[in-house]
Give the backbone structure.
Amino acid sequence: MRRGTRGITLIEVLCAVLVLGIAVTAVFRTLEAQTRSTGAMADRVFAHWVAENVIAETRLAGRFPDTAEAQLGGVSWDIAVTAAEASFGLLRVEVEVTAPDRPGARLVAFLPGGSEP
């Protein structure tokens, strides 16, 4: 029986499986990182929305909100508001929104006014 050159050897199959396994592992790690990044981005968006709501409430009511906590996206967000006199009769308002184990947001706005809260 003559040995032909048709077919592949076991070593070639093992090398192909190894390369495929490495590629699949890299793809799954990339997908996992993208999933985590998307979740963190959603948390940042919610935190920013809470900060924008605080600024909007301040503009509409003419005073700072009474609550230091808000619920949005199934998360309880803590709110810290600081204000300081700025130039030209404006009030610099900084709203920092945080939650445990989640990325937060910080928003700065300049509102008409002249007295700190």
In short: The longest helix spans residues 10-61. The mean pLDDT is 85. The two ends are 96 Å apart (CA to CA). Residues 10-112 form one domain.
